[in-house]
TrEMBL record, chains A, B, C, D:
Name of the molecule in the record: Transcriptional regulator, TetR family
Keywords: DNA-binding, Transcription, Transcription regulation
Organism: Streptomyces venezuelae (strain ATCC 10712 / CBS 650.69 / DSM 40230 / JCM 4526 / NBRC 13096 / PD 04745)
InterPro entries found in the cross-reference section: DesT_TetR_C, Homeodomain-like_sf, HTH-type_TetR-like_transc_reg, HTH_TetR, Tet_transcr_reg_TetR-rel_C_sf
GO molecular function, one term: DNA-binding transcription factor activity
Length: 233, 233, 233, 233
DNA sequence: AATGAATGAGGCTTCATTCAT
DNA sequence: AATGAATGAAGCCTCATTCAT
């Protein structure tokens, strides 16, 4: 009997319904279905019925493995946040080079991921954040880590600038911790906004989006570090 | 006697429940309550029961005046979008001065409004936009008008820069229509993102937020117009 | 000021809304509106809102004059039943001639009334009867009176037949009270059924309907009185 | 053990509530309950609450299986119309003999069914027909089929009469298509009317009702075919 | 004579969740 | 490993009816 239902890594056998799959596979199917459903309808409007149907299983099985709608949503957020954080971290950390190069690599990874997994991006950027606790917090943790990367890069650039040459030119010593935080917020906010806009706008590639943001933001940061502030006359 | 319930523009008199108010007053109370409820819970999770209770009326009266949850939400979005658009437009149009001065004025008005009416801002920026049609479209119209203001100011600055001196320095002629659009998107996106962040972060004033954004964005724009692009080495 | 609103018998003055009409006029307007509304939607589905609007008055006035939906429906049934009974009675009683002639006159009056007041006929034949007590009883009283007329005419014909000549020919003495009742029921049932069918079928006149029924029924009655029963072989 | 709840075709075992019955059984219970409820109160006034309670299940289960009040009513009408049509068709078609014999058989089947299933008969003859589309249409289809049977029998009798002897006697050739239609309408209308009257009148049997109608109608039809029309003098 | 303002009660429908196998 | 059967709770909406003028 073992093997009678032989299943490959990909999941379903042939065209029919695959039964008696191992738990890990079933859970992935459910989470995949949940991502789609939550992305499309939002947490409240998504229904366990639809998710079970999309996953090709009965509702009790969803409850057996994921316990409740709330835990299911949390599991989805965690899985997708880890994935996104993973690709961004891989692009930014443990790699040498000047901070702007690393920021560029991180942005490219970020925009590419958002473009390739639009439902995941929608869940993280919209559905989780607008759903209140504990979901928003779950997504905020990931965002904070990304913001910390960015703040790190900005700070690094500022120190380099202070020290001598570099992107920021010489002479700027004015960037404090709180300001770095606000700048990182603005940059990450821009990136998120651009990512959603790019996903919704046909013909905009991840590379274009990343380039626009670098043009827009990094040179502005450079100015800031040269203490060239704008101020009302 | 006549006048025993005399009511002012502001609404309820004293601490007791005011009964038999004129329709216009009641409608405003209901819309106010709806803004709070939709902001807190989102469209789906907000309940007509809670809205009625917050407004101090019975549910049937809400239906008598606003017809349905959908129409109520639409009415809320329209009212708040008009209000926000109004203050921004007043700050930007029909006023002379260089484009950066007018952008500064507009940003200040925008951040101030968002700070003073956080629920309205949440409804417009989050609840309406994530609820799909027809609500997202209703809010998008307002956003588009604001984005058009900003694009106009950027374009104007670019023309001035092309023409000679000005913020952007001389010589830059590289900013095309599509690029202006993307920049305006990024700037508006940053502004929205910053506004929500400022509302959620104690101690951040509207003026600070506006200043951060001007520093961050306008000088970056200036660089762009000098054709000082960032590009991967 | 009296007379400033001068109104004619017909009701509304000019094109605008007539205000301060005498009670009798207002009540007729309300009953007219109610007949239409009850005929179209049935008792349950008809709404006091619609009736008030059709009557051109506010709802409280309807309650002031007619007290409740139930009483309003009852008032409608009574008014329409009296009217229908009136025209039929006028055609049948207090008039000489043989019973078949009088039946013919009664049927003609009945079908004509139903054709000319289809809403009233619908209320009586359908809406009242299917609404349970006390409404069905109200309509049943009228139907019983009409059935009694018919039974009277059948009985009279039977006696004539027994006595000698007449429609029914000679020799038949077999028609008892219970049978007369059943026959009258069948005839009245046919008439009602035909009236509704005629109203719903374009091009069928009251005279045609009456003729069909006389052909169908009266000669059959004649046979019965000649004891020519049908019986399974 | 398995089988502890063993249930027969008829439904519930013993006096206690049977749980976890198969869908088909539950659906039949719900339809039975719905027939009773719709017959008593009419479509609008019947409540899903009462139906669920009569069926011995919770409301959500009714919705799970029957989807909505409208679909439930439609399902009821279809089931009962099929059943009634079935017994009448079985009595009339695929059976030899003269048309009057077959009409007699059909009427007997009809009146018996109406007597044995008064709620079903009320739903079909009253509740469905007065509820407007799409319900009236659903019931009208069944009625039309029955009327077609009757028209067929009348036409057959007329042709026999034309041909020579037969019920209708000789010589009559005057019955046209439209007239046959009207006669069939009148006969079916009488039958319906009589059925409801018989159900409401204690002591009237189906056989009596059928006999009354045959006496009343068939001999009348015979006269018609002999061209013995009634006409006002 | 007439009405704008207001509500208690109830109906249809949906959904997350559990039970028993 | 998996599911068919079932429900408590809650939400949107409507309607007959009344209040205060």
């Amino acid at each position: 009997m073992g093997g009678v239902w032989g299943f490959g890594v990909g999941g379903v056998v042939g065209g029919g319904k695959a039964r008696r799959l191992p738990r890990v596979v079933r859970e992935r199917q459910m989470l995949d279905a949940a991502v789609r459903s939550f992305a499309r309808h939002g947490y409240q409007a998504a229904s366990m019925d639809e998710i079970a149907e999309l996953a090709g299983v009965s509702k009790p099985l969803v409850y057996l493995y994921l316990n409740s709608k709330e835990e299911l949503f949390t599991a989805v957020i965690r899985r997708e946040a880890q994935a996104l954080l993973g690709v961004v971290a891989e692009a930014v950390v443990g790699r040498g080079g000047p901070p702007d190069e690393r920021l560029w690599a991180g942005l490219l990874a970020f925009f590419s991921y958002a473009a390739e997994h639009p439902d995941a991006w929608t869940v993280l950027s919209v559905r989780a954040r607008t759903q209140g606790e504990p979901f928003a917090g779950e997504a905020a943790r990931m965002r904070d880590e990304i913001t910390a990367f960015v703040a790190g890069l900005i700070g690094e650039a500022a120190r380099e600038a202070r020290g001598g040459g570099g992107v920021a030119g010489r002479g700027g010593a004015a960037v404090g911790g709180r300001e770095v935080e606000a700048l990182a917020q603005a940059l990450v906010g821009s990136a998120e906004s651009l990512a959603s806009w790019a996903n919704a706008t046909p013909g905009v590639t991840a590379k274009e989006a990343a380039a626009t943001l670098m043009d827009f933001a990094w040179s502005g940061l450079g100015n800031l570090m040269k203490s060239e502030r704008w101020s009302p006359r």
